[in-house]
Amino acid sequence: MLINRVRKNHKHRKKWAKREGVSCFRLYDRDIPELPFIIDTYEGRLHASVFVHDEMDIQEAQELTLEWLKEVAKSLSLDPEQTVLKVRARQSGKQQYKKRSSQAQRLEVNEAGLRFWVNLHDYLDTGLFLDHRQTRERVSEEARDKRFLNLFAYTGSFTVHAAAGGASETVTVDSTQGYLQWAQDNLELNQFAGLQHRFERADVRTFLEDEAQAIRQGVRPRYDLVVLDPPTFSNSKGAHPPFDVRRHHAELFDGVYQVTKRGAVLYFSNNAQRFSLHPDLEKRWEITEITEETVPLDFQQKRPHRCWRCLRR
Asked: Once rounded to an integer, what is the mean pLDDT over residues 159-167?
């Protein structure tokens, strides 16, 4: 059942991916309830995550899943030894931010004519969120001559698309230095370099406060285009106090309001379950949910995120 499902998906999505100019896409997402894992392909290599519950034996689940994945790889004429498997279990404290490996093997992948570095081994996530391809394209289409701000930037993929779209300036903000360096590497990989691309290591809330003060003092101009894609929850070293998107998103919207022009566009997204926007946000923002337009073909079976386009009043 698994092999048949993956082969069918691969046949159709490989053609679609070629048309779209992408080399990474989803092949399987817990389609069969008894097989609770996700399979993606990156440049012809399988990358998978198995979801384990408290009552499951993690090592046994990992070993069994890896055997299945190697058979899947063979059925697709891919190298089974190139298959990478991660275990996703309930995390606590700072465990969710730890490295899984230190192989430092980077792979260059393609998306819409742009190149990105991914790491299939060392972290739970690879460095490129595949479900936001369409959102990145929208940013690229709106970026020309805009001053662009990327908050919770991770590895800077939105910044690369904004630069490709002709942004006059980009500012990339994340609390982790390793991710900021990764973002800078991604821009350089696409030959976007220079003083117009600024990188800030900071807690986003602190950055917005400081940037608003600099704008009031006339030190910096306001932004035209912003991406805000926060984690559901974070208690990382740079987050003071711990961040919860349900509780703190209105505070972030207020911070973005303080640093943007009238008519500026904010793209806001998150992965939280049972999330609802604070009702008072409509007073300052014209908000349109665009989730259906931002979920690509290979993610439509399970909605991976929600996304809104917000126009500053």
From this structure: 98
